Amino acid sequence: MLTTLYAITPIFLIIATGHLLFRFRVVGESVWSAIEHICFYLLLPALIIRTLSRANLLSVPVVDFMTVLVVAILGMSLLLIITHWFFRKRFPQSGPSFSSLFQGATRFHGFVAIAVIGPLYGDAGIALAALALAIMVPLLNVTSVIVLSIYGHNDVKPATSAVVKKILTNPLIIACVIGLSFNWLGVHDILFDTIEIIGAGGLGLALLAVGSGMKLGHAAQYKLLPTVAVLTRLIGMPVIIIAMSWLIGLEGLARSVAIIAGAVPTAASAYVMARKMGGNAELMSSIVTFQVIVAFFTLPLFIYIAERI
């Protein structure tokens, strides 16, 4: 447990540093937007390409790994929708808030997941984390857009072609495709070294950007729903993944990575999606902030469990 705390504490210290830099205006808001942009479109994709291009994927139980993650996401999604359906008459105006709760419970922060898994498990762990991104990002984008289209208060509903385009042009998904292609076809050392240098700067900047996006003032406005989002995302999701791993027989490093992917906070980009598609954006901001704070305590617990079950 102490080793795990030593491994992840620097991650949360970097996040806290990013928040302090933002709060005291050491770095302007426009600069943070540029940092997020370059991390999302260049630095983290380079890290994924570098990791997948020379990973030993033959030793990875891809089918079982994929099944555990997909069933966990769809199971949590179905549970949330059924629960909302039962309570819809008592809370008739709760659609936008439910859409934000849904995103908070199902989506995951890829930046944080890779930053946690890397120090603990090295390149083998990052390769599995990249595969988790390839599996979860398209599925979670589709489910989130569908839920926001149904429950959000925005009158403009996205076309199917727009949703498909958003998924196909996601830089993290493109990076997974390129990395897997390089793994199969091979990549020259010069190109590999170039990609490695670019990707090396990604995690630190990405974590600083996570901290800059924390809105502690918004978090104080809500209590019940962020608490529900913490319970479902940071506790419920990893518990479902543990149960599915036991049923399917997923073990070892693949199981640990799947559990960590389930135990990290929700994606910061959920706030942008909530704002653009009629969700409760302020609630979404509170959920993201609250989960990052609470994950400092819950994430080490589930890493400890993952390594000992």
Could you characterize the architecture of this molecule?
With 309 residues, this protein is mostly helical. It has a single domain, classed as Up-down Bundle (Na+/H+ antiporter like fold). It has 14 helices and no strands. The chain has helices spanning 2-23, 29-53, 62-87, 95-106, 110-151, 160-168, 171-185, 189-200, 202-212, 216-219, 224-248, 252-263, 269-276, 281-306. Helix 2 (29-53) crosses helix 5 (110-151). It is globular and about 60 Å long.
Q: Could you outline the blueprint of secondary structure elements for this entry?
A:
Blueprint: H1 2-23, H2 29-53, H3 62-87, H4 95-106, H5 110-151, H6 160-168, H7 171-185, H8 189-200, H9 202-212, H10 216-219, H11 224-248, H12 252-263, H13 269-276, H14 281-306
Helix pairs in contact: 1-5, 1-9, 1-14, 2-5, 2-7, 2-8, 2-9, 3-4, 3-5, 3-11, 4-5, 4-11, 4-14, 5-6, 5-7, 5-9, 5-12, 11-12, 11-14, 12-14, 13-14
Quickly give the structural class: mainly alpha
Helix content: over 70%
Largest sheet: none
Low-confidence stretches: none
Output the radius of gyration.
19 Å
What is this entry, summarized?
With 309 residues, this protein is mainly alpha-helical. It has one domain (2-306): Up-down Bundle (Na+/H+ antiporter like fold), CATH 1.20.1530.20.
Summarize this structure as a short list of keywords or feature phrases.
single chain; 309 residues; mainly alpha; Na+/H+ antiporter like fold; 14 helices; 81% helix; globular
